[in-house]
Specification:
Six copies of one chain form a homohexamer. Chain A is an alpha/beta fold and 235 residues long. Chain A has two domains: 97 residues, Rossmann fold (3-Layer(aba) Sandwich); 106 residues, Rossmann fold. The first copy, chain A, is 41% helix and 14% strand. Chain A is built from eight helices and nine strands. In chain A, the strands form two sheets. In chain A, strands 5-6-4-7-8 form a five-stranded mixed beta sheet, sandwiched between helices. The longest helix of chain A has 20 residues. Chain A is globular and about 50 Å long. Chain A starts with 8 loop residues before the first helix and ends with a strand. Strand 9 of chain D pairs antiparallel with strand 1 of chain E.
Chain lengths: 235, 235, 235, 235, 235, 235
Amino acid sequence: MINPILPSEFDKQDRVFFADNVNPSFEVEVKSLDYGPASIEGYYDETLAAPFVVKRVVDAGRRGFDAVIINCFMDPGLDAAREAVEIPVVGAGESAICLALMVGDSFSIIDPGPRNYVSYAPTRQVRRMGVENRFVSVRGAGVPVLEITKDLDKTTERIRLEVLKAVEEDGAEVVVLGCTGLAGLAPKVQAKLGVPVIDPALAALRMAEVLVQLKLPTSRASYPESPEKPRKLPF
Amino acid sequence: MINPILPSEFDKQDRVFFADNVNPSFEVEVKSLDYGPASIEGYYDETLAAPFVVKRVVDAGRRGFDAVIINCFMDPGLDAAREAVEIPVVGAGESAICLALMVGDSFSIIDPGPRNYVSYAPTRQVRRMGVENRFVSVRGAGVPVLEITKDLDKTTERIRLEVLKAVEEDGAEVVVLGCTGLAGLAPKVQAKLGVPVIDPALAALRMAEVLVQLKLPTSRASYPESPEKPRKLPF
Amino acid sequence: MINPILPSEFDKQDRVFFADNVNPSFEVEVKSLDYGPASIEGYYDETLAAPFVVKRVVDAGRRGFDAVIINCFMDPGLDAAREAVEIPVVGAGESAICLALMVGDSFSIIDPGPRNYVSYAPTRQVRRMGVENRFVSVRGAGVPVLEITKDLDKTTERIRLEVLKAVEEDGAEVVVLGCTGLAGLAPKVQAKLGVPVIDPALAALRMAEVLVQLKLPTSRASYPESPEKPRKLPF
Amino acid sequence: MINPILPSEFDKQDRVFFADNVNPSFEVEVKSLDYGPASIEGYYDETLAAPFVVKRVVDAGRRGFDAVIINCFMDPGLDAAREAVEIPVVGAGESAICLALMVGDSFSIIDPGPRNYVSYAPTRQVRRMGVENRFVSVRGAGVPVLEITKDLDKTTERIRLEVLKAVEEDGAEVVVLGCTGLAGLAPKVQAKLGVPVIDPALAALRMAEVLVQLKLPTSRASYPESPEKPRKLPF
Amino acid sequence: MINPILPSEFDKQDRVFFADNVNPSFEVEVKSLDYGPASIEGYYDETLAAPFVVKRVVDAGRRGFDAVIINCFMDPGLDAAREAVEIPVVGAGESAICLALMVGDSFSIIDPGPRNYVSYAPTRQVRRMGVENRFVSVRGAGVPVLEITKDLDKTTERIRLEVLKAVEEDGAEVVVLGCTGLAGLAPKVQAKLGVPVIDPALAALRMAEVLVQLKLPTSRASYPESPEKPRKLPF
Amino acid sequence: MINPILPSEFDKQDRVFFADNVNPSFEVEVKSLDYGPASIEGYYDETLAAPFVVKRVVDAGRRGFDAVIINCFMDPGLDAAREAVEIPVVGAGESAICLALMVGDSFSIIDPGPRNYVSYAPTRQVRRMGVENRFVSVRGAGVPVLEITKDLDKTTERIRLEVLKAVEEDGAEVVVLGCTGLAGLAPKVQAKLGVPVIDPALAALRMAEVLVQLKLPTSRASYPESPEKPRKLPF
C-alpha cells in the first residue's frame, strides 16, 4: 500500500488499520513517498505525487508483491502504474465508487475539504468512470486533509452533517467518503442512517485482494506496456 | 449460493468450483430451486425463477448465512432479495460488470446464446447499472445454455471466437462472460489476448466475500424493507 | 387489464375507470391475481406478483385478447410477458414515462410512498428506459398505497404538494404520477399548474390501444420467444 | 395534418392513408403549405418550412381542430407550434421514436437519403430527445425524397436492405423509418424480420389521437406562450 | 454579425461592442432583420426569425464575408445556414457553451427571462450539444429581453443574484449568460466570484475568428448542401 | 508553448509552425522539458512528463506570459497547471475536441499509434470531457510517435486511411487528429473529404489566443489554488 504523500502520522495509523483488516493470506506493507506533497487536495498535489507513486509501484512489482494499493481517493498515478507493471494496481477512489454501485442505487461523495460546498454535476472522476447516472451530488465538508485528525470529533461531526444532507436533501442512497484520511470513520457516520457509507481505504484493500485471488490481469488493451524510449528523470 | 434453476449437473460442478475458489474463512452451500426453469435464457425464465430465489434467500437469512450469491448473469430476484433480508445479496451479472470497470476501460459481454448476434446498444442490464459509457458491444455465441456442457470444446471455441471479435472488431478492452454456466472457462478463452475475461460466478463469489468482510449493509434507501401486508402465495 | 395484486376495491374502481375511458372499439376486462401481494411498493412485491401476472397474460393471449395492460407503475412481469405472448403487453410505468416525453421537456415522478423524500438521481426504471437526460427528480409523498383511498382528500393534498415542489423547486416541466392507485387524480392536481400531470393507468390504456391499432408486433429481437425446456411450477 | 411541403402528390396519398387509418371519432384534414420547399431533406428545408407550418397550426387552432400533426420526420416547427397554440401538436419523428421505445430495446433509424451511409453516433434529434442509450445506428438508403415514389419497388428494396443491415450488423431491435414519405411501407419491409418497423406518419396519427383523448395539455413550462411583442412578417 | 431580430437599439450598441472587441485583421458588419420578431424569447420567435437569418447568411456568403455570427443564444437558423453556405457560421449559444467546457468543469446557464425559475434538467440546447454531464442547472432571472436595458442596474442585480445562486446552491463552476442582450455584462457579475462568466456574444465573435483563421470547413457530412428542388417563398 | 517531451526535432518544426500560424498580437515561445520522456504514448509517459510541464507553466506565469499551451493530445499536467497559475492554460486534446463540436455533429479520433485498432467506446479523455454522445470511434493508425516523421508520406497515407474508415465505416462527421506530432497534416488528409480534420496543435493555439483576449479566468471553483503545505521535490 502506497500513501502517495510524504511520511506522516497517517503511515502509522494505516499500518494498524490495514493490518487489522487484511485477510490472513495477505500482508500489507505501507510505504509513503520520499518526494511529493504532504497531502493531496487537488490536481497540483496529485500530479506532483504521481511519478513517485509509479516508482513505488514499479519497485513493488520488482520486489514480488502481488498487488499495489494507491491509498488516495484521487487515484494519483493509477493509470500510469497499470501500464508499468503486470500486477494489479487499485486506487481508493475507483474501488470505493465501484463498490458503491453494488450496495445501493445512487451515491454521493463527501469530500473532506478544504471548501464547504455542494455540487450536482458529476465530478471528473465520476465522468472518467462513466457512472454519471448513479451519481447524485458531491459535498465538501470544509476540513483540510491535514486537519482531519487534529480534532477528530469535530471532523466526524462535519462529515456526519454532510452525509446527512446528501441523504436527506439530495437523495443519496449510498455515501462514499472522498478521502482515505477518513479511514475508519465510516461506521461512526453511518450509524442509524440505513445508508451504507463506503471507506475508500478498505474498498481498495478488498478490491486488491479480489484481483489477486481472481488472477485477473490488467487489460493490456487499456493499459499497454509503454514502449522503450529515452526517458530522462532526476530521480 | 443459489443456482436459480431446477436441480441439474451444474449444481455438482458448482459445488466443486466454489469449494475450490472460496476463501478459507468462508464455506459455500450450493442450492438450486424446487420450482423454476431448467435454465435462464430470457425474462420469462428469470421471472419464473425469481420468487423461488427470494424464498431461498430468505431461508438463507434465517439459517444464519452471511451472504447469498444469485448464480446467474441475469441477477433474477436480486432487487427483491435485497429488500427481504439484512445480509448482502450479490448477483453474478452485476458483480462481473462491476469488476470489469476495475481492470480496463471498456467492456463487451459474451452471451452464450441461443442466438448468434452482435449489438452495439447497451443492454437493459447495462443501462440499469448506468455504465453505458463503458459498454462496447454484446455478442451472442449461439450456444443454448443447456448445451454448453454437451460439447465443451465446441462451446469454448465459439465463445473464444466471439471474445476475439469483441476485442478486434468492436474494441473491447475487457470481456465479461454473460452466463454462469461458463464458470471456469475464462482462463481458456483469455489466453494470449492481453484482455481480461471475467467469470461472473467467480466475480460474485469475491464480491460476496468482500461485502461480508466490510460489514457493509445493503442500502435501505435503495432497498427498503417491504411493509407488512397481505400476501397470498401457493408456495 | 391486470391489476397485479390480490382482489381489492381497486378492481371495482378500475372497472368503472377503464370502461369510462376506453375507446368504443375496445372492451377492457379487469383481472386481479389469485396469488400475490395486496399492493406493490417495492421489488419484493413486484417479484412475487410477476409470475402470476405472466400467467394472466398468457391466459389473455389464449383467450384471444388483443393486448394486455399491466396496471402498476413498476411494470411487474412486463419483459417476461412480452416474451410469452404475441400480443402487445404494456406497462403503466413505461407508458406514462413515454408519454411524458411527448408533452414537455423534463419530468419528475411522484411516488405515493410510503416514504417522504426527494432524489435527483434517475431511478432504476428511468435508467432502464434510457431517458435519464429528461429526468429531473423523484419525490415520495409519504402515502402507503393501501392508504391512498382511506382519506382521498389528504392523499390528493399530499400529492399536490409534491407535484408543486417538483415544478417549483426542481424545475419539472411534466409530472408523472408514480402509481396506478392514483388513477383519476391527475386533473385534480394539475389544475392551474400549466404543467401536465400524467395518469399512468390512462397512459397504459391509450398505449395498448395504439399498439393494437398499429398492428405493431413486439420485437422478437428484444423479447425472443423462450425456448422449450423443463419448467416446474407449483401453480 | 400538415404536410410541411408544397402541394404534391403526397397530399392525395396521405388523404387516403390517413382516412384509412384514423379512428372513427376523428377526422383528418390534410393541408400542405402555400410557401416552402418541395421536400424536406435537411435543416435548410426544415427552417424554410417551419414558419409556414406554425401558421397552419395557428390557423388550425383558430378553426377548432383538436390537434395537429406535423407530417415530417424532422418535426419542422414543432416546438414553435407548441408555444403558439393550446391544442396538442405532434411531430412524426418524435412520435415514432417514442413509440419505438415501447416495442423493443434498441432502435435504428432508416433515413431514405439522399446519401447512402451508416453512422453509430446518435443524431441531433435523438440527442434532443435524450434517448441516446436506446439508439443503435442511423442508415441512409440513398433515395432522394422526391424519388421515393418514382420506382416504389426499388425504393422498397433499398429500404429493406438497410433495415436488414441495421438488424443484422448493428443489432437494432426496432427500426424507425425516418421519413413520412415512406408511409405505408413498414409492413412490406417488416415481414418475417421479427423486428417491428415504425411508420412515422401512423405513429404521429396515433399519438395525436392519444393526446386529444387524454386531454393532456402541452407543458407551458416547456413551451410558454410567447409574450406579445412587435413581429413583422411578409406573410 | 446578424442580430436575428428587427432593427433596434441593440444594433447600435452591438456595433460599438463588436468594433471594440474584434481582432484587427477582421471587421464586423452588424445587420438585423427586415422581418422577424423584436426579440427572441422562445421557439416561436426563433422559428419566425430563422428563415430571415438564413437569407442574411446566404447574402453574406455572396458578398464575400469570411464568416457569420448569429447573435442570439438560441442559435436561430444555425443548422440551416451551415447547409446553405461554405463559410463558417457560428451561434452565440453553441460558442458560449463550448467555451465554458474549456475554463471549468460544470456550468449553469442564466436565462434572462421572462420567468424566474430553476431547473436541474439539461435544456434542449444542452442535450442537442451532447454535454449534459457538464451541465448543472438553468436559472431564469425574470427579466424580459426587451426590458434588459430599461433599468440596467436592476437587470445586473438580478443576473448577479442568479449567478450567485448557481454557484453557491447548484455548484456551478462556470456560468454562461443565456442571452446576447447581456453583452458586456459578464465582467460586472463575475467580479470576486472566482468563477468565469461567459458572454455569448464575445464567445461567438472569438469562435468565428478562430474558424476563419483555421480555414476549417463546416462538415458537409453533418450539413450537406441542400439539393436543388422547387422552393416557393414570399420573401 | 510547452512540448511535454525531451528536446527533439519537433521543437524546431513547432517553432516554425507556431510562428507561421500565431496571430500578430502574440508571440510563441516553444519550450521542451529538461526531464521527461522522448514521446508521450500512454499514461506512463504522461505521468512522468506532467510535473515538469507544471514547472514550465509556473515558470511561464512568473515570466509574464499571457497563456500556456500544453502541446500534446493527452493534456499532461493540464489540470494541475490550471491550479498552479492565474493565466489560461490549454491542452491540445481538450481544445481539439471542443473545436470539433463546433464544425460538425459527431467526431472520431485518429490516434497515430503504436497499435492499429478501432474502438467504439468513448476514450477516458472523451468521458472526462463529458462529450460521449458526440463521439463515434477512435482508430489507431499503427505509427509510433517517434516514427511519424521518419517516412512522412507513409504516415500521411496511414492516417488518411484511418480518417477515411472513420468517415465511411463509422459515420464520423468530423475527425480529430489525436497527436500534436501530426501538426500540419490535417489539410493533406482532409482534401476532398467534405469532413473537417482538426489539428490539435492549431486548435490549442487558437483557444489560447481566445482565452487571453476574452480575459476569461480559469474557474477557481474547478481549479482552486492549492493550499500552502510541505512539498518535497528532487527538481
